[in-house]
Specification:
Chain lengths: 463, 391
């Protein structure tokens, strides 16, 4: 199930929250667990077993690590085996075909693709559960003795499918007992609606432009259109992902959880380094905490630092998808971050305008690498960005007017909302009439768009 | 605070309640909204058929364990929720208005042009088009010596002709170039390609396309008919000599899709043309038009009673140019075929989408003198039934 669906909004949400709050608080973890399982299984019942196995295995390892508290060797063995298990599941279900394909290419072997369907949310929940066992090993947290609580931590529906990545230590207390006043509940609801609008009204609408370009064919794009496409994709992915994160945070709040912020106006960053402190913050901090620092971070000399950065960013890229373009995307960031670390970053601080332009251009280009999994397409698109060809060949040369006219409004809205300009106004007004009218409008408008998605005249087209 | 009169009579403190509502206004709005939606959802009957969409809607699925395990129950349930949401048509209308509010010229892949014209969005011809052209070329190669003439006529869709009503910079593909690239090659002595683009462009300022529907008007079809006559050396019938009938207030498929985006209803014109008999698969008729459709949503289905796999028309007695013709067509031809009854004794009409027989057998069996293949551009790019040409 996804949040931005009528099924979720009109069935799951009212029924679930009705039961959740009618139950005495000692049953709420149970309700949340069952509700989340239903939420997950709705789309993909067969992978439920995977998540259950994952909970059981990590729970047992947690107990073992705790039990052998003074046997360093066994603790370590437990940690290593469970990490291998967790990462193993992720690798098998996410990267098998990618590995086989490259194996075929390099070693001239002849494996058939397995066509394993990626289990929903596996990239996210694997990282979450790893945070639990690693922190337990590091003695940062207490062992979780209740398998239900650990289960709730892993499957709770707000962040199960697309994050934010909540580390166990952040929510351990709330798993035991949490409070949610009506005011908190309403605040959560407001955040949820903002996220819904962000996804449905902005991301989905801008997304049409990007999809159109794929149909028109990248080879047919003029230079202005190619840049417009980059702008559109940059906004789409931000409002999509941030929208989903906001919905998760809002729902979390409605349950009494405080799920960490995931985005902080990333596009106002003045360097790529800063961008990554504002973009998908829970992922970057996870990698820092559980990969970069364990590798030694920046403590072992310059060369080792750069090597570590390279490893972290290649894996960050690969985490986003089983394809070379994502690895390239990660390495692209490694290069920029390395240059900034080497001194360019300090120079940027004193050249604000240049810094902003450089940052936005770099991020825009990175999205091109991110969006185009096929290298031939990537080459075509990149060449169109610098073709210096203002009009399109083949079809009507003024296409840019059409797209600016049709998407100008939503693009400008997207640009404005990517900055904190309206944030102060909203914070001041969110409980006043103006703010409530706005939120109600966003809610109704989003629902109208969702309902329309099911409107399919011409299923038997051209009767 | 002093208790108000309400607190004595109704047992609650009005001030306190009002204060709580003010503080949690949005929460109350949501709760009331949800309650209304759920209540109406429970009370209202499922809508079985959607006229505008021309399809059946999903009703509540029956629960089954197997459906639960393979996920089909969930999928169907979600479709059910989406299609039976209370106030569905109002939501859809609201979305259409929101699109306008966002200064969009398009809704659900329909583009609003000038003077009330709606156009379809067509960004690429796609793979299917090349396949279909391949079938067409093979068909002509296979049958060109079995008929006196084969004519291929691709009807352009309105956006390709009515340039003056298009919004600036519309990103649609150029039908003319795409069609010319294919249709000019591979000609045999008795095979013609009707350049309807050229024919219709000459009349672009006339009412040759519906504003709200994907079809051409009977007038547009009439000009195409004249072009066909010219190609074959027939004397075309003059419409001024025919009895004209009208169906007003027609809103077609483009309108249905863009829903509420723009509304300038069309008028359908048809001409009384007597025939002997028209044989539909299971019944025979004595005229060409289904006048009962005039009062329904799908008014275009008046022409030839809609689309059937194979229809035979025995035209009225009189001097004809040729014995018979086989027309392989989509719905565009439905309003053109009546005119052809002045030139052929028998007209065989095949719609590949519903045709279940063998084309080879049909041609051997009926031995048509002429063959006309008439489809609109959009159908040529999307229809997946052209393979039947070679069956």
């Amino acid at each position: 199930m996804v949040f931005s669906s009528l099924l979720f909004l009109f069935w799951f949400l009212p029924i679930f929250f009705g039961i959740y709050y009618l139950c005495p608080s000692r049953f709420r973890n149970g309700v949340l667990f069952l509700g989340s399982i239903l939420f997950y299984a709705w789309g993909e019942p067969k992978y439920l077993i995977l998540i259950v196995i994952s909970i059981a295995a990590n729970y047992l390892s947690g107990l073992l690590i705790h039990f052998f508290d003074n046997r360093a060797g066994i603790r370590k063995a437990c940690l290593i085996s469970i990490l291998l298990f967790d990462i193993g599941l992720l690798v098998v279900f996410k990267y098998t075909d990618f590995v086989l394909e490259n194996c075929n290419r390099i070693l001239k072997t002849d494996f058939n693709a397995t066509n394993i369907v990626l289990p929903l949310g596996i990239s996210f929940y694997t990282f979450q559960i790893m945070s639990y066992v690693i922190d337990l090993y590091r003695r940062k947290i207490q062992v979780e003795k209740s398998i239900l609580r650990l289960g709730v931590y892993l499957v709770m529906f707000p962040q199960l499918i697309a994050g934010p990545i909540v580390v166990y230590s952040k929510v351990a207390q709330q798993l035991e007992g949490r409070k949610c006043s009506l005011k908190d509940f309403e605040d959560g609801l407001k955040i949820f609606i903002l996220g819904l609008g962000s996804k449905v009204l902005i991301a989905n609408n801008i997304g049409v432009l990007w999809d159109d370009f794929a149909v028109i064919g990248y080879e047919n794009l003029s230079m202005p259109l190619a840049w417009l496409g980059i702008l559109a994709f940059s906004l789409q992915i931000y409002f999509d992902f941030n929208g989903y994160s906001l919905m998760a945070i809002g729902l979390g709040k409605m349950l009494g959880f405080s799920i960490p912020q995931n985005f902080d106006f990333p596009y106002i960053a003045k360097s790529v380094t800063e961008f990554w402190r504002r973009w998908h913050m829970t992922l970057s901090s996870w990698f820092k905490e559980y990969l970069y620092i364990p590798l030694g971070g920046n403590q072992n000399g310059k060369l080792k630092t750069y090597v570590n950065l390279f490893i972290v960013w290649s894996i960050t890229g690969l985490w986003h998808g089983a394809s070379w373009n994502f690895i390239l995307w990660g390495i692209f960031f490694f290069v920029l971050l390395a240059i900034e670390r080497a001194g360019f970053g300090t120079w940027l601080e004193s050249h604000t305008i240049f810094a902003r332009a450089y940052t936005l251009l770099s991020i825009g280009c990175s999205w091109m690498i991110f969006a185009l999994t096929d290298f031939a397409e990537l080459r075509t698109y990149a060449s169109k960005l610098f073709s210096f060809q203002v009009r399109m060949e083949g079809i009507n040369g003024n296409v840019i007017y059409y797209y600016l006219g049709n998407y100008g409004f939503v693009l400008v809205l997207g640009i404005i909302l990517s900055t904190p300009i309206l944030k102060n106004w909203y914070d001041k007004n969110k409980s006043k009439v103006a703010g409530i009218c706005l939120l109600t409008f966003i809610m109704l408008a989003s629902i109208a768009y969702l309902v329309d998605a099911s409107y399919n005249p011409f299923l038997y087209f051209r009767f | 605070m002093r208790p108000t009169i309400h607190s004595y009579i109704l047992g609650f403190d009005r001030e306190a309640v009002m204060k709580s509502i003010r503080q949690l206004l949005f929460l109350y709005i949501c709760i009331v909204f949800m309650a209304v939606m759920c209540l109406v959802g429970v009370i209202k009957q499922d809508e079985e058929f959607s006229i505008k969409e021309n399809r059946y809607l999903t009703s509540r699925p029956n629960f089954s364990a197997s459906g639960m395990i393979d996920g089909s129950y969930m999928k169907q349930f979600e479709t059910y929720v989406n299609e039976q949401i209370p106030f569905r048509s109002q939501w859809i209308l609201a979305k259409s208005l929101l699109q306008k509010g966002m200064l969009r010229q398009e809704n659900n892949d329909i583009i609003a042009g000038k003077n009330g014209y709606l156009f379809e969005k067509k960004l690429s011809a796609g793979v299917q088009f090349n396949k279909n052209m391949g079938y067409l070329i093979d068909f002509v190669r296979e049958y060109h010596n079995k008929a006196e003439s084969i004519t291929v006529a691709a009807a352009p869709n309105s956006y390709g002709v009515l340039a003056q009503y298009l919004p600036k910079g519309i990103p649609n593909v150029n039908q003319e170039t795409i069609l010319n690239n294919f249709l000019e090659r591979d000609t045999y002595g008795n095979c013609f390609v009707l350049d309807l683009q050229k024919t219709l462009s000459k009349h672009a300022d006339e009412y040759i396309y519906y504003r709200t529907d994907h079809h051409w008007t009977t007038l547009g079809a009439y000009y195409a008919y004249r072009a066909y006559c010219e190609e074959n050396g027939f004397e075309p019938v003059e419409i001024s000599n025919l009895l004209e009938k009208r169906i007003a207030n027609f809103t077609g498929t483009y309108y249905a899709k863009a829903d509420g985006f723009i509304r300038e209803p069309d008028t359908i014109t048809y001409f009384e043309i007597p025939i002997d008999h028209m044989y539909l698969p299971n019944e025979s008729k004595v005229d060409l038009y289904d006048v009962s459709k005039a009062s329904e949503f799908d008014k275009y289905a008046t022409f030839l009673y809609g689309n059937y796999g194979m229809v035979q028309i025995d035209t009225a007695d009189g001097e004809k140019d040729k014995e018979s013709i086989l027309i392989i067509k989509d719905s565009y031809a439905n309003c053109l075929i009546p005119f052809l009854s002045y030139h052929y004794n028998t007209i065989y009409v095949v719609d590949l989408r519903y045709f279940a027989g063998s084309m080879g057998e049909l041609i051997t069996d009926k031995q048509p003198i002429d063959i006309l293949i008439m489809n609109n551009f959009s159908n040529l790019t999307e229809d997946k039934h052209f393979y039947k040409l070679l069956k």
